[in-house]
UniProtKB/TrEMBL annotation:
UniProt-recorded name of the protein: Receptor-like serine/threonine-protein kinase
Source organism of this protein record: Fagus sylvatica
Gene Ontology molecular function terms on file: ATP binding; carbohydrate binding; protein serine kinase activity; protein serine/threonine kinase activity
Binding-site positions, ATP: 540
Family to which the UniProt record says this protein belongs: Belongs to the protein kinase superfamily. Ser/Thr protein kinase family.
Swiss-Prot/TrEMBL keywords: ATP-binding, Disulfide bond, EGF-like domain, Glycoprotein, Kinase, Lectin, Membrane, Nucleotide-binding, Receptor, Serine/threonine-protein kinase, Signal, Transferase, Transmembrane, Transmembrane helix
The EC number(s) this enzyme carries: 2.7.11.1
């Protein structure tokens, strides 16, 4: 008893002294009358070491955020903010006034934010090396500190008391309050909760610590551990284990906008280096704290993990991804949490015109929208269930499985994977037949102009060697990945690849019977792995006659095997047995972008936006985030595949060349495909990652216009898409590029922005082209797009 009392007294003394010891750290004090003004560049007060800064950051193209951030990391990661829901314009000011008030005001003097001070005798402000910003009295008593008022982040030496919470941001670039929070409840339970958005009250919890009545404080110590204690300091629950000393690593733990609580570390000796590109690797995410599948969150009131009419799918990194079912698209592609809308006119409830024959049901296996069923029938067949939904104008989706039939209507909520896939439940989505919008072809009223460029002429001459990469294609439903599918095969350490024998792959492909496509270096076959799940794969068989085959094979295995990105086709395994060299890839159920974009049934505008952005993100990953930089060298619609959710997945790295970390360029023989090849291939110029940027620019124009980059059937001034698109941009006639495409016409600001990005990408001078990272930032709106010059200005000058 005496020992427990001693622990209690020691702990209370530590708590009482915490404000004084925190403020006593080395700091550069800001005296009364000090102020900061929002300007075109970051303005701030730095901590003594320079690790942290307090001041103004401009958020994308919007206003300014009063914030605290890591100042020595190129990403300038924000850890606290004052006005996330009310960004201020340039010229706004934060001031420690002569009378001891601390106020953020706009240029007109209107008060935007001020802290709730304890007492009024503020004498100075200080940004500390711990990341804590304090307002203190003359005797160093804390009147206010950011550590007591966290937003979405907790830092080492910071604690959370009962009632404290970390509220997730609305989205990655929106610092207003979002839909999730990490909270130490007054009763002592630590919880992950949804918020009754747009209110800030808790809605429902999806994880609890089970410490009701005992939990007292969350501690993030200097060893990188986060834990929950009781009132005497005893550890009730370890939330994270040690992630390393704060002397060697910057650390933060964040309640992420998608509902996951994650701890990150960043090596201090790696700041401002390119090999990690300013990114924070995830140090920890506990399976006990993070739900096994965030997508399984179901709310009695609310949309679930994603917005209404959408569904959630877990990524490889166990972070949720929000998707739209077939026939639906995002209300706002830049804000997927707003949910999805129907891309067709709903079924009429007029009994005289039931429209039953104008609708069909599209199957989506292992997806469900639980709760909020408005009808349930038992002991019925699938055909009966289908007819019941088609005959019901209220029915948007019907779930069928084991004789059960559940009807659902808009808005759909709690979209998630089926929790028990073994029962064979399937979702049947009702959409209007032939509802996919058709892209228009260019008209004949464009200005007549005779031209040709060296790039097009030489590219056409190369047409005889075009690579026929119709890979991993057509018409087969992609089965959902099961973690145990390939466990029968040995794993290569450090690569997460499976080693197959030639006989296993010969059997999987039925003797290499069904060819999916072929190119200069390989032929691709459809295969089925002989496991209980009969997992579909694409098996790429390298040609024995290729003299550089070993180099090509080794490059793919070593590079692709270590790539992991949602916009890349995943390499699953390989065979290297004698003369036999084969690669085993995921099978993409919806084929290539070429067949989808240039066929009879074309994606709508918002699908094309997502495909363009996904492709850009995949290339940015290859160029800047891989341990060994990868140049693809053959970006074209045939090498962009679409998975079961129509997500863009870059395929075929067989033409890629690897760059060592200390290299910035390489020279090699001409690779690539007619119309997509950058001009430096044809000159004595080094080939860099900018060749992929050029190819992406052509691809982006094809996605915007829904036509091929070169069409000999068109009249002369329309044959070359890049020339025609620039003419339309220069003459302010961009509507010609998307004529009869109603959705794109209603989104002309984005059309203009994307055309400008494409023109920047296809500049003849490689140095003028942006990096793919900047392309992504421009497409997302984080970087403003300036007016580009004519794409052929460089070639005209040589």
């Amino acid at each position: 008893m005496a020992l427990a009392l001693s622990y209690l007294l020691s702990f209370l003394l530590l708590v009482l002294l915490l404000p004084y010891s925190t403020i006593a750290q080395t700091s550069k004090n800001q005296s009364l009358g000090s102020s900061l003004t929002a300007q075109n560049k970051d303005t701030y007060w730095a901590s003594p070491s320079g690790d942290f800064a307090f001041g103004f950051q401009q958020i994308r193209k919007g206003g300014y955020l009063l914030a605290i951030w890591f100042n020595k990391i190129s990403e300038k990661t924000i850890v606290w903010s004052a006005n996330g829901d009310n960004l201020v314009p340039i010229g706004s000011k934060v001031e420690l006034t002569k009378d001891g008030q601390f106020v953020l005001s706009d240029p007109t003097g209107k008060e935007i934010w001020k802290p709730g001070l304890v007492g009024t005798e503020v004498a100075y402000a200080a940004m500390l090396d711990s990341g804590n910003f304090v307002l203190a009295s003359q005797d160093s008593r804390s009147s206010w500190q950011s550590f007591d008022n966290p937003t979405d982040t907790i830092l080492p030496t910071q604690t959370m008391k009962k009632g404290s919470k970390l509220v997730a941001h609305y989205s990655e670039g929106n610092f207003s309050n979002g839909r999730f929070q990490f909270r130490l409840q007054m009763g002592g339970n630590l919880s992950l909760e949804t918020i009754a958005f747009p209110l800030d009250s808790p809605n429902s919890d999806y994880w609890l610590s089970g410490t009701e009545g005992n939990g007292f404080q969350v501690v993030f110590n200097q060893s990188g551990s986060i834990y929950l204690t009781d009132i005497n300091g005893s550890i009730l629950q370890n939330i994270t284990s040690s992630a390393g000393s704060t002397q060697d690593f910057y650390q933060r733990a964040v309640m992420e906008y998608d509902g996951v609580f994650i701890q990150y570390v960043y090596p201090k000796n790696s700041t401002n280096t390119s090999n990690i590109a300013g990114r924070w690797p995830m140090a920890w995410s506990s399976s006990t704290l993070m739900p096994p599948n965030v997508c399984l969150l179901a709310e009695d009131m609310g949309s679930g993990a994603c917005g209404f009419n959408s569904y959630c799918k877990l990524r490889d990194n166990r972070r949720p991804e929000c998707l739209c079912p077939r026939g639906y698209s995002f209300i706002d592609p830049d804000d997927v949490m707003k949910g999805c809308k129907q891309d067709f006119q709903p079924q009429s409830c007029d009994e005289a015109n039931p429209e039953t024959d104008q609708f069909e049901l599209i199957e989506m296996p292992n997806v469900n929208w639980p709760k909020f069923d408005y009808a349930h029938f038992q002991g019925q067949t699938e055909d009966w269930c289908r007819k019941a939904c088609l005959d019901d104008c209220f029915c948007s989706v019907v779930i069928f499985g084991s004789g059960h039939c559940w009807k659902k209507k808009n808005p759909l909520s709690n979209g998630m994977p089926e929790q028990n896939p073994s029962i064979g439940t399937k979702a049947l989505i009702k959409i209007r037949k032939n509802s996919t919008l058709q892209c228009s072809r260019p008209g004949a009223d464009s200005k007549n102009k005779v031209r040709s460029t060296l790039i097009i002429i030489v590219s056409v001459l190369l047409s005889s060697s075009v690579f026929l990469n119709l890979l991993f294609l057509f018409g087969f439903r992609f089965k959902f990945w099961k973690p145990n599918v390939l466990q029968l095969y040995p794993v290569i350490p450090g690569m997460n690849l499976r080693s197959f024998t030639y006989e296993e792959l010969r059997e999987a492909t039925s003797g290499f019977k069904e060819e999916l496509g072929s190119g200069a270096f390989a032929t691709v076959y459809k295969g089925v792995l002989q496991s209980e799940d009969r997992y579909l794969v694409a098996v790429k068989r390298l040609n024995n006659r290729v003299r550089e085959g070993d180099l090509e094979f080794n490059a793919e295995v070593s590079a692709i095997g270590r790539t992991n990105h949602r916009n890349l086709v995943q390499l699953l395994g390989f065979c290297n047995e004698g003369q036999h060299r084969l690669l085993v890839y995921e099978f993409m159920s919806n084929g290539s972008l070429a067949s989808f974009l240039f066929g009879d049934s074309l994606p709508n505008w918002y699908q094309r936006i997502q495909i363009a952005l996904g492709t850009a993100r995949g290339l940015s990953y290859l160029h800047e985030e891989c341990s060994s930089q990868i140049i693809h060298c053959d970006i074209k619609p045939q090498n962009i595949l679409l998975d079961d959710s129509f997500t863009a997945r870059i395929s075929d790295f067989g033409l890629a060349k690897l760059l060592k970390l200390d290299q910035t360029r390489t020279t090699t023989g001409i690779r690539g495909t007619k119309g997509y090849v950058a001009p430096e291939w044809f000159r004595s110029m080094p080939v860099t990652i900018k060749v992929d940027v050029y190819s992406f620019g052509i691809l982006l124009l094809e996605l915007i216009c829904c036509r091929k980059n070169f069409d000999a059937k068109e009249q002369e001034d329309l044959m070359i898409l890049a020339d025609w698109a620039y003419d339309c941009f220069k003459d302010m006639k961009l509507e010609l590029l998307v004529a009869n495409d109603e959705e794109a016409i209603h989104d002309m600001k984005r059309v203009e922005k994307y055309v400008m990005i494409a023109i920047w990408c296809i500049q003849e001078d490689p140095s003028l082209r942006p990096t793919m990272k900047k392309v992504v930032q421009m497409m997302e709106g984080a970087v403003e797009v300036s007016v580009p010059p004519g794409p052929s200005s460089f070639i005209s000058s040589i």
